[in-house]
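Exam revision sheet. Question 4 asks you to relate a sequence to its structure. Input first:
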Amino acid sequence: MRLRPATTDDLDAIRTLIVASMRGLSDGFYTPAQVESGLRHVYGPDTQLIADGTYFVIEDEGTVVAAAGWSRRATLYGGDRTKAGPDALLDPSRDPARIRAFYVAPTHARRGLGRRLLEHCAAAAGAEGFTTLELMATLPGVPLYAACGFTALERIDPIQPDGVAISFVRMRRAVRG
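Answer key, structure tokens:
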């Protein structure tokens, strides 16, 4: 399976992956109402990551089966529709790089693709001088991130515009975890 930088030509495949990943891997973590609310209000591509060259996909026989990225910008989570205003650059000497928008197709879950993407992103962030990583995990993602050395800092339960609360966990680790 090939890991490569995402391009804007991948946006439709990434959107399809996000829906499949959230609907297929959220059982036992989120209710169907929470999944659908998240798909409407939170989850989605962040085209700034693609423009920055910090978002990646893994293809299996030409099909995008996993996607993830890292960022040198302040946004911690959410797609384009959740942003308001400029996305300031972080200072690697004091700020953690952001790990962003991890999605794996249910058909390819638990095959090491998430870990592969995570380590690729960590290495890229480290090459730019970042020493720590921070992310906002979905509940299905927490076990992967914990297994990769991330520590939970806080749980948040933001209420979405439709009144549905969705839980997330802010986590952090050293770049060389």
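Marking note for examiners. Residues 132 and 174 are 4 Å apart (CA to CA).
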